[in-house]
């Protein structure tokens, strides 16, 4: 038997712990031929976050962490969605714990809004919570996401996390 509230709180702590293990080379990627220029690459960050989460989450955690599961053609989730992460029990729509979207702070506002709008579909399909994780040091995008979440009818079920810099814990905003 799962306890979604307890399990979500555990997962959230492990997510924050995993962000604290992300080094600068995964936070921003050095660009060849551009001296010291570094750029955000969401996939690089997400793959490292997945790696760190897999080491952080206890083996007895009843849910499975999956990345970029394509939901096209899903009988309960209408649309063409591929969230960055889902925490679920595969094959059991009553025990979906979380859907997570990740964006760097240089993401276009429209992309942040699209991800927040996507949460509505997942929350209506019985996901317990949604998490918007923004990484980088530009607070203006965090403020924008916070505003958009507040406008959502499901705002109480959407958490905003900000991971400001490498080797630091993301914080709930």
Question: How does this model look, in words?
Answer:
There is one protein chain. With 173 residues, the protein is α/β, with parallel strands linked by helices. It has a single domain, classed as Restriction Endonuclease (3-Layer(aba) Sandwich), CATH 3.40.91. 37% of the residues lie in helices and 22% in strands. The strands form 2 sheets. It has a 6-stranded mixed beta sheet with strand order 3-4-5-6-7-8, with helices on both faces. A two-stranded antiparallel sheet has the order 1-2. The protein is globular. 32% of the residues are buried.
Percentage of residues in DSSP E strands: 15-25%
CATH fold group: Restriction Endonuclease
Annotation, overall tally of beta strands: 8
Q: Determine the N-to-C terminus distance.
A: 30 Å
Task: Please state the CA-atom Rg, rounded to the nearest Å.
Answer: 16 Å
CATH class: Alpha Beta
The succession of helices and strands, N to C, reads HHEEHEEEHEHEE
Give the count of structural domains.
1
- Class derived from helix and strand content: alpha/beta
User: What is the residue-mean pLDDT, rounded to a whole number?
Assistant: 89
Strand order of the largest sheet: 3-4-5-6-7-8
Shape, please?
globular
Per DSSP, the total helix count is: 5
Largest sheet: 6 strands, mixed
- Helix residue percentage: 25-40%
Spans of 5+ residues with little confidence (pLDDT < 50)? 69-75
CATH-derived architecture? 3-Layer(aba) Sandwich
